[in-house]
């Protein structure tokens, strides 16, 4: 897909925290800038991997403002702004627009289960109308987590009602047939489809999708960049094989604590293990397993990061 706002490889970035669980803006901004220098076209921040729903409303604003103030380009950021509350979703989206972000990733209202398409249409209509123009809305399709899927019929209605404002989707369902159906039905209208699963990067690009927004991008984005550049051929195929292996390695452990462990060991910075309950850091044994799996996948060492903590 040409001219996609976030076309390419986007990491769903981990959020750095201090020992008392407050956002660590210096450490986080440094990680974001490292990702952008090592294969990422953009960053999905404050999503599932970024533990958005473990942070309060004002904290989420503080995080976005803080990393922009520390040199992370707002135009490269797709913050998660979807909340159970309509008012909070609107306010966080307006805030992202005011900071200069080009798009936001919006979960459906996830507390009440099995809402109708009419109810979801009404919700997103209110979001778009209250926010106004000037920022693109990306739908976050992750039914395993939210329990509220986006149907093709609903997406079609939203695109018809709000052309150019409902801009795309991140599909974290793992169901490639669903991603392909979104591409087939809506890509012709400029609707950007991003995979949340690394194993689909090469395939989705070939079939008209825009790229990916993935948790494993915290460690494998440089291989995604090769796939995005070359698309086909031996170099792209080899890089896609590493994406597949790193995705498998990342999901063999609890995803967020496992990725934090990889970054902690790669940087020699144990603060990356800080994680808000109910998540917990990995045990020493589980941490070693996560490290060994990622090393076997071919993603390590991470360029530009110290390896001194490998034996911790």
From TrEMBL:
Q: Which InterPro entries match?
A: Aldolase_TIM, DapA-like
Gene3D superfamilies, alphabetically? Aldolase class I
Per its UniProt entry, which superkingdom is the organism in?
Bacteria
**What does the UniProt keyword field contain?**
Lyase
Q: Which SMART domains match?
A: DHDPS
Question: What protein family does this chain belong to?
Answer: Belongs to the DapA family.
The name this protein carries in UniProt is Dihydrodipicolinate synthase family protein
CDD domains from the xrefs? Answer: DHDPS-like (cd00408)
